[in-house]
# Entry
Amino acid sequence: MSVIEGELRDQLRKWVDSGYDDKFLLPQLKAGVAKLWLYHHKEIENGRDELNALIVKSVEVQGYVWNVRSICNSCFERYRLENMDVCTDCLVTYCYRCIGGIKMAANGKCYCGGEFY
# Structure
């Protein structure tokens, strides 16, 4: 199980156990990245609908994240997140210009083991 999947399942359990209290929703950036991650991992079947419900509710309450501006961890310029790649696990962000030059792990993932979306 990947780190993001474990985090999402833990958060889902807390959210359900709390009676769906909004204080257990995902933070804005994590919710946005989780939505992309779940979309790209069709093999996740166990609890998929429940994970999606958590993500959708988080985005609904926290707001649409991709309009937010963030700083590239390489060139330090500001971009909208929709023009950046974000790691699913450590949430490091790189702009569209820098991501190609970033040294990644041999498997093409972030050094923390997360995937870029």
Observations:
- The CA atoms of residues 87 and 116 lie 4 Å apart.
- Residues 3-62 form one domain.
- The chain has a mean pLDDT of 92.
